[in-house]
Amino acid sequence: MGIEARLDELYAIGGGPGANRPHPSPAEDDAHRLATGWLEEAGLAVEADRHGNLLGRSPRAADVWVGSHLDTVPRGGRFDGALGVVAAVAAVGEVGAGSVVVFRGEEVGCVGSRALVTGGGSLPRAFLELHVEQGPRLADRGVPVGVVTGIVGYARGELVVQGRAGHAGTTPMAGREDALVAAAREILGIRDAALAVEDGVATVGIVEVEPGGANVIPSRVRLSLDVRAPDAERLDRLIAAIGFEPTYRVEPVRFSCEAQAALRDEVSACGVAIVELPSGAGHDAGILAAAGVDSAMLFVRSLNGGISHSPDELSSEEDVELGVEVLTGALRRLTSP
Length: 337
Prior knowledge:
Blueprint: H1 3-12, H2 26-41, E1 45-48, E2 54-57, E3 64-69, H3 82-95, E4 99-103, H4 111-118, E5 126-132, H5 137-141, E6 145-151, E7 153-162, H6 179-195, E8 201-203, E9 207-210, E10 220-229, H7 232-242, E11 248-250, E12 253-254, H8 258-269, E13 276-279, H9 284-290, E14 294-300, H10 317-335
Helix pairs in contact: 1-3, 3-10, 8-10
């Protein structure tokens, strides 16, 4: 069975428009059962660890892992996570070496890979992950695949803006202390701070307005913050420019060892220009890299403006085929005697 057919099988699990395999759910379990059958068909020794992660080991160089995840956000896309698993099955089957890994719960904080790392499980010597870019940079540059330099760091927290409540009809505009108006200025300042830091991004995803009456001037506004940058220096600079105290922070991770070199060499061998870019989203590869595993990622170009976490997520068959070819070649390089 080919890559596209297997992607279709996974996409059909969960029903409804889009991919619906949240963690934990019966749909995610069904996807793991489907993948188990593929691993058995490939002649791999299949096991699930106590965290629910699925592993299919070949007889040779089983300490080199290739894989991704099968859980999705609600109404997610056809490729996110699923492509990495289907490609891993194809690569390990073609090379006859390495192991396929399917992690649990990546979309809710890399649950499976974090549990493996913190729970004292046996870690691989190297790990490769193929993933759609989930952004427009490769498409903007006209290239089909990109080698990932690392995973950005991110910080989360909030800003609170105070004002004074008043009657919407009887309080003159000139005398108002409207917290929402002040919060709007803060949001524009957050945008400008991110634009001033190369490859930095900042998002206000939640705005809570008090007291919340249609005829009451807002007295208090809470803004959620998600701030990201490729390295610690830029992340620190962005946090300082915005002026908030993070309540949660994850440090950036860089890929720079043998696994990344194998991907670069294979991209070059395929006659494709080597383009490097950071990942603005978290991935299981980042968790393993932070734990000391030689990890690397290859992005496949996303189309439709780079949209992801949506049924409109799209990558071409040609780009997917090339991505699988590069992944397979890199696995062969890492497992050769």
